Amino acid sequence: MRVLAINDISCVGKCSLTVALPIISASGVTCDILPTAILSTHTGGFSGYTFRDLSEDIPAILQHWKSLGLQYDFIISGYLGSISQIEMVKSIKKDFLKEGGTMVVDPVMGDNGILYAHFDQNFVNEMKGLCKIADVVVPNLTEACFLTDTPYSSLTEHSYTEILTKLRRLCPFPSVTGCDETAEVNGKTRVLSTVYYTDEKGAVRSYSTEKIEGAFHGAGDVYASALVGARARGIGMEKSVAIAAEFTKNSIKQTAADKTEARYGLNSESQMYAYLQALDKECRK
Ligand code: PXL
C-alpha cells in the first residue's frame, strides 16, 4: 500500500505533515510526502511565523515522480496555501492515483466558526470544487459549515444530519468531526464529541466519544491521518472511524492531562501503541 500525503511542513506545532507522516507510516503502509509550504510554526495561535510557499518546486518533483512511474493507492491532501495549489492537487489525482484508488481531502480552512489566516470565501468556493473530486472528505464542523453554506451560529444538534446530507452532494463519503451533542449517560447529562459520516452503503452514521473541554490544535490532522492509516490497512469505514476517533480522543485527553499549551499540538505519540494494537486487532479478524 502506498499513500501520498500532500500538506505543509509546520516545523513546530504538530500538525499537517509532522502528524501525517508518523501516523500513516506507523499504521504499516508507505507514506510519501509532498510538502506544499514550510512554516516555522502553524498559523493558529502563533505570530511572526515564516511561510515559504513551495509551489515553484512542485512541477519538477512531479516530473521526476512521473519518470519513476509512481502510482498511489491513497492520496490525502491537507493544508493548501493558495487556489493554484488546489488546482495542482486535482492534476496530481489525475496523474498519480491508481485506478480504484482513494482520494481523501481534508479541507483545512478553519475552526471554531472562523477561517484561519490567509483564507477567504473565494478559497472556500474553490475548496468545494476539490471536495467534488474526492472519495472521502474529513472536514471539522466549521469547515463543513463553510462547504455547505450553513451559518455556524445557527447550528443545533439537529443540523448535523442535514450538513452531512448536503456534503454528500459534493463527495460520497464525508466524515464531520467535532459535532458536540448532549446525551443522558447513567442518569447524567454529558457532552459528547461526535463524528457524523456515511458508511459504505451510504447510510448516515455517527460515532461518539467523551468531549474533553478546550480547543486542541492539530486534532483534525490526527483524526484524518489515523483514518487514512486504518483505511489503507483495509479496514472498513465504520471501524476506521471508531479507531481514528478513539485515538484522537485519547490523544486530546493526554494533552489535557499534560497541561501543555494547546498551540503546540496533541500528544498523540503516547497513544500510538494503542492505535497500532487497535489496527492489528481489526486486521486479524
Ligand atoms: O492544523 C491545520 C493547519 C495546518 N497547517 C497550517 C495551519 C493549520 C491550522 O492553523 O496553520 C499551516
UniProtKB/TrEMBL annotation:
One of the record's GO cellular component terms: cytosol
Gene Ontology process terms (BP): pyridoxal 5'-phosphate salvage
Family matches, as InterPro entries: PM/HMP-P_kinase-1 (IPR013749), PyrdxlKinase (IPR004625), Ribokinase-like (IPR029056)
Organism encoding this protein: Candidatus Borkfalkia excrementavium
GO molecular function, one term: pyridoxal kinase activity
One Pfam family this sequence matches: Phos_pyr_kin
NCBIfam families: PRK07105.1
EC number(s) from the headed UniProt entry: 2.7.1.35
Domain Pyridoxamine kinase/Phosphomethylpyrimidine kinase intervals: 81-255
Name assigned to this protein: pyridoxal kinase
Keywords recorded for this protein, A-Z: ATP-binding, Kinase, Nucleotide-binding, Transferase
